[in-house]
Design a protein that fits this description.
Length: 309
């Protein structure tokens, strides 16, 4: 049974909130450590506690960006970094939502206002969802990932509003079904995957490849900006992603896609961050996905498939 006591769930809850608000790297660390270490009063003491982690993150980020700066991470002003992440990133990104709930920043110690808001408003919502998951979901070992995928397909609506777009050949050369998208694609082809959004929203896109493996493609580094403010055709990988198209490798078979369009980012802690690779899905992920979207009238759930030959 899930404990309702905040302290029992604090670490998991704060990590979940960091994901929900799309904080990453040192912003995520500053958010979590400031709110978790409430017994550490000053920024200077907090900097002593987490300085090594912040420096390591900064070094990793510099290497990823191939930054050849000779500045030593040991010279990093950790106190300033912590304050800046809160003043310039965390608080501004939370202000609008907090004000809607009647919480405003006044003077110093803004993190205490954030903590109060999280405990009084967000924690009850999170706890209710967690208790719902524990109460409704069958034990993971009783359902296979493939039976869960079949259940997800059953709940989704078959659509011709999304599909693969082959990159090497023109539209006139493609075999077309009733929609603009082909129902067969040659193995080895380079494709983009398109979704025709009928309303703005957050796109979560899951794939079962011809190999049988299941992945979450959006969000991930293939779709680093999965919230769309306008309707229209969007394609994956997104412009600016690490790759320009998908190459269909492996073996012939069926590629299956499930897309969920929701008003906001789903409250699923496992969704990849914008800089992370597609997540290999397990049964527990699909179980939580099914429960989350069950009965949500403001969400769209689509399914389609095509043959790789």
């Amino acid at each position: 049974m899930v404990s309702s006591n905040y302290k029992d769930n604090e670490k998991e809850f704060l990590q979940s909130m960091a994901v929900k608000f799309c904080f990453s790297d040192n912003t995520e660390l500053a958010f979590f450590e400031r709110l978790y270490n409430t017994d550490v009063g000053s920024w200077e003491k907090l900097a002593d506690l987490v300085g090594d982690k912040l420096r390591e993150n900064s070094k990793k980020k510099k290497n990823e960006n191939k930054n050849n700066s000779k500045k030593d991470e040991n010279d990093l002003d950790v106190v300033k970094l912590l304050r800046d992440r809160w003043d310039k990133k965390i608080c501004p990104s939370l202000t609008e939502e907090m004000e809607k709930d009647g919480y405003q920043f006044n003077g110093k110690n803004k993190w205490k206002v954030v903590r109060k808001w999280l405990i009084e408003v967000k924690y009850p919502e999170w706890l209710k969802e967690k208790q719902k998951l524990e109460g409704i979901l069958p034990r993971p070992q009783l359902l296979t990932v493939y039976s869960l995928w079949e259940e997800l397909k059953f709940r989704a609506n078959l659509t011709d509003k999304m599909g693969p777009r082959v990159q090497e050949i023109s539209k006139m050369d493609m075999y077309e079904a009733d929609s603009d998208y082909p129902n067969t694609v040659l193995l080895g082809s380079n494709i983009k995957f398109e979704v025709q959004l009928e309303r703005p929203g957050y796109l979560t896109l899951l794939e079962k490849g011809s190999s049988g493996k299941l992945y979450c493609l959006s969000p991930s580094f293939l779709a680093p900006a999965p919230h769309f403010n306008q309707t229209g055709v969007i394609s994956l990988p997104q412009e600016g992603a690490r790759i320009k198209s998908f190459k269909l490798t492996g073996k012939p078979g069926v590629e299956e896609i499930v897309a969920a369009i929701a008003p906001e980012r789903p409250k699923l802690d496992w969704l990849p961050k914008p800089d992370q690779p597609p997540l290999l899905l397990q049964g527990k992920h699909l179980q939580e996905f099914l429960v989350y979207f069950e009965g949500k009238s403001d969400c769209t759930l689509w399914y389609m498939d095509y043959q790789v030959v």
